[in-house]
Write a structure and sequence with these properties.
There is one protein chain. The chain is mainly alpha-helical. It has a single domain, classed as Methane Monooxygenase Hydroxylase, Chain G, domain 1 (Up-down Bundle). It has 7 helices and no strands. The radius of gyration is 21 Å and the shape is globular.
Length: 241
């Protein structure tokens, strides 16, 4: 009987991982499409992304149900339990990245009705950087590559530094041309969404560390977001007091 239960648990965990992989692929595709829609001011793609997010929510609910069934069936060995806990953690992080991609799409719809603002290229650069980070951490998870996961974890401050720079660029653009304030405000939020993608990639890196080693990653997390304390001086030619 114990052997049958073990086989059942094994099959259930492999099915769980397969569903997580499909969810991860969809979220990665959503993020990539959100960046493209933003760069191209593509209303049709943005609208499709918002609708497709419902599928990510379905994955989230279905995986949660499967995890509950696994846990109810009986106690799991430690390694198996770490697998299940990591899937549960990953699912939450993926769902949040999906929400961030949806938020970018929603703000793209608004920006498509505004005159283009110069900081757009910097924000798009941030988006591509966040996508690279997210793709790298998904690859690290699929291969159980702890070194690759720690590289993503340690590189999050690079995305933060880019965010600091883009944030200041947007504020200056609003000072230069107040008529762009609406567009620039949405750009700030889109840039923040991309910065948050990096945070979720870092969370996944920590989950991978737990999965592989059985212990949490206790080193101080690298963090370089300084936007909460940044003040941007107006250019002298504007004569703003």
């Amino acid at each position: 009987m114990a052997i049958e239960v073990d086989h059942k648990s094994y099959r259930a965990r492999r099915a769980l991982e397969a569903e997580l992989s499909r969810m991860a692929a969809l979220v990665e595709s959503q993020l990539q499409s959100a960046i493209i829609a933003f760069e191209r001011r593509d209303v049709g793609t943005a609208e499709s992304l918002i609708t497709n997010d419902l599928r990510i929510d379905e994955f989230d609910r279905d995986i949660e149900t499967k995890i509950m069934a696994l846990l109810v069936d009986g106690p799991l060995p430690e390694e198996a339990l770490r697998e299940v806990m990591t899937v549960m953690k990953m699912t939450g992080e993926l769902e949040r990245v999906g929400d961030l991609a949806k938020n970018v799409a929603k703000r793209t719809l608004v920006l498509s009705q505004e005159a283009p603002a110069s900081p757009t290229s910097g924000v798009a650069r941030m988006g591509r950087a966040s996508l690279r980070q997210f793709s790298d951490i998904l690859d690290a998870y699929s291969t159980f590559n702890l070194d690759a996961a720690k590289a993503v974890w340690g590189g999050d401050d690079e995305l933060d530094e880019l965010y600091n720079s883009v944030f200041q660029e947007i504020i200056l653009a609003m000072m230069e041309d107040p008529s762009k304030a609406n567009a620039c405000t949405h750009l700030v939020f889109i840039a923040k969404n991309f910065e948050r993608v990096g945070d979720h990639a870092t969370n996944i890196a920590e989950a991978i560390h737990f999965l592989v080693t059985g212990s949490p990653l206790v080193e101080p997390r690298p963090k370089g977001d300084e936007t909460s304390t940044i003040t941007v001086a107006a250019p002298k030619h504007l004569n703003i007091v």
